[in-house]
């Protein structure tokens, strides 16, 4: 019998991360804005109560919301990513198999537990995450992922659950009643069109789908929906994946703070992405065999010349060396850039990844100076060590640093005031960005004793 699986979901994750280090934000309407402070991507419960919808452009937020104390924050992905890693670390101390699902959700296998012990363990996990990270999570548990997802939804929406809900399939009366109350459109993975077709067959609730004929569902829809049906019935159809297996590709991409045609600015953005991607390569123990660089304009900008292009660059041998990858990017930029065109976004994709310990050297690579490879590995180890010790981008490729990759002041606000007129076009606008409390020594919280 398969072990129960739980979905651990951080509540209002981005706004909750902001509140961990700024208690004054507790109970205040709070929204987090997208890259370049464009639109709302996260809301606290208080902001939702003001009627602010997801995706609302910044300039469309009503003035009445500000009069009721609305606070804006720019997206601080360095903080959110580190807080996500901390939550994962807490979960991995409690159970051996944890699979990240998104930045704020993880699947957790809870082997050897059942009944009251299972619910007690879910509460223990929830309390431990809160105590060690300051973040509130909801835990939904069941014999399948689909039921765990449904249970998590119930736990988040009903305060009486105290953040934990366990579903054991449509066998127990309470679980059966919950499935009967859940619309089929609210089941994980069922979209609007499929939901409408199911309702035409008089399948309106999750329970209706769980008790439908699986052969009929597969014939009229797909094997995917049949799997959802069986999972609602308590059958474990999707196995856990050990996330220690590295990614097959690594993409680093970002929109610019403002459009630019300046070659140096565009080059600096691509080199920054290449450097970040190479760092991720080394972290997961992989080597890249090819690099793809991309550029594109803003398709929504009127009266602006439109252009988008990409180019794949084969590397001489698989590598994780920042300088080799950056050299490849610098060499090919002019192959895709058009003079005078103002670009809005750039990206670097590292492709054809291989395990650094299992790679096979070809005849040409075998001739490469072994001392040179060893120097490269030592240099990259030193580079990563310095950036871990002194903060991200403390040491970068010289060209990026000259163009303005580094942020030397404690906050984005101070950086803008100190570098007025010098801020690179490709830097993101982050007018309301909080400190990166957990990853930058110069930005850690300060306590003054009177």
TrEMBL record:
<keyword id="KW-0742">SOS response</keyword>
<dbReference type="InterPro" id="IPR043128">
    <property type="entry name" value="Rev_trsase/Diguanyl_cyclase"/>
</dbReference>
<dbReference type="Pfam" id="PF13438">
    <property type="entry name" value="DUF4113"/>
</dbReference>
<dbReference type="InterPro" id="IPR017961">
    <property type="entry name" value="DNA_pol_Y-fam_little_finger"/>
</dbReference>
<keyword id="KW-0227">DNA damage</keyword>
<protein>
    <submittedName>
        <fullName>Y-family DNA polymerase</fullName>
    </submittedName>
</protein>
<dbReference type="Pfam" id="PF00817">
    <property type="entry name" value="IMS"/>
</dbReference>
<dbReference type="InterPro" id="IPR001126">
    <property type="entry name" value="UmuC"/>
</dbReference>
<keyword id="KW-0741">SOS mutagenesis</keyword>
<dbReference type="Pfam" id="PF11799">
    <property type="entry name" value="IMS_C"/>
</dbReference>
<dbReference type="InterPro" id="IPR036775">
    <property type="entry name" value="DNA_pol_Y-fam_lit_finger_sf"/>
</dbReference>
<keyword id="KW-0234">DNA repair</keyword>
<dbReference type="InterPro" id="IPR043502">
    <property type="entry name" value="DNA/RNA_pol_sf"/>
</dbReference>
<dbReference type="InterPro" id="IPR025188">
    <property type="entry name" value="DUF4113"/>
</dbReference>
<dbReference type="InterPro" id="IPR050116">
    <property type="entry name" value="DNA_polymerase-Y"/>
</dbReference>
<feature type="domain" description="UmuC">
    <location>
        <begin position="5"/>
        <end position="191"/>
    </location>
</feature>
<comment type="similarity">
    <text>Belongs to the DNA polymerase type-Y family.</text>
</comment>
């Amino acid at each position: 019998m398969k072990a129960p699986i739980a979905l651990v979901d951080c509540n209002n994750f981005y706004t909750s991360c902001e509140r961990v280090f700024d208690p004054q934000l507790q109970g205040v309407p709070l929204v987090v804005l997208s890259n370049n402070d464009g639109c709302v991507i996260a809301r606290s419960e208080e902001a939702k109560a003001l009627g602010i919808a997801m995706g609302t452009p910044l300039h469309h937020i009503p003035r009445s919301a500000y009069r009721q104390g609305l606070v804006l924050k720019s997206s601080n992905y360095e903080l959110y990513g580190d807080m996500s890693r901390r939550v994962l670390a807490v979960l991995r101390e409690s159970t051996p198999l944890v699979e990240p699902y998104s930045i704020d959700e993880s699947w957790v296998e809870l082997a050897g537990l059942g009944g009251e012990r299972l619910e007690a363990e879910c509460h223990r996990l929830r309390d431990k995450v809160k105590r060690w990270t300051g973040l509130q999570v909801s835990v939904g548990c069941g014999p399948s992922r689909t039921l765990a997802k449904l249970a998590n939804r119930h736990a988040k929406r009903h305060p009486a659950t105290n953040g934990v809900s366990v579903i054991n399939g449509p066998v127990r009366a309470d679980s059966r009643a919950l499935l009967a109350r859940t619309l089929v459109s609210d089941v994980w993975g069922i979209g609007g069109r499929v939901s409408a077709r199911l309702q035409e067959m008089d399948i309106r609730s999750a329970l209706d789908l769980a008790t439908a004929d699986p052969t009929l569902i597969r014939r009229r829809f797909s094997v995917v929906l049949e799997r959802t049906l069986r999972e609602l019935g308590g059958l474990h159809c999707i196995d856990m994946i050990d996330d220690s297996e590295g990614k097959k590709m690594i993409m680093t991409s970002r929109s610019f703070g403002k459009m630019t045609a300046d070659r140096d600015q565009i080059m600096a953005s691509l080199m920054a992405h290449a450097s970040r991607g190479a760092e991720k390569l080394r972290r997961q123990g992989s080597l890249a065999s090819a690099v793809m660089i991309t550029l594109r304009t803003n398709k929504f900008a009127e009266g602006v010349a439109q252009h988008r292009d990409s180019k794949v660059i084969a590397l001489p041998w698989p590598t994780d060396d920042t300088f080799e990858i950056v050299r490849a990017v610098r060499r090919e930029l002019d192959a895709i850039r058009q003079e005078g065109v103002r670009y809005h976004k750039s990206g670097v994709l590292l492709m054809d990844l291989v395990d650094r310990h299992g790679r096979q050297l070809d005849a040409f690579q075998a001739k490469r100076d072994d001392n040179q490879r060893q120097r490269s590995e030592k240099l990259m180890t030193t580079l990563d060590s310095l950036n871990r010790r002194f903060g991200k981008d403390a040491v970068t490729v010289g060209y990026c640093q000259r163009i303005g990759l580094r942020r030397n002041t404690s906050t984005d606000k101070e950086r803008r005031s100190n570098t007025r007129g010098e801020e690179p076009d490709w830097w993101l606008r982050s007018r309301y960005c909080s400190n990166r409390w957990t990853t930058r020594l110069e930005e850690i919280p300060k306590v003054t004793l009177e």
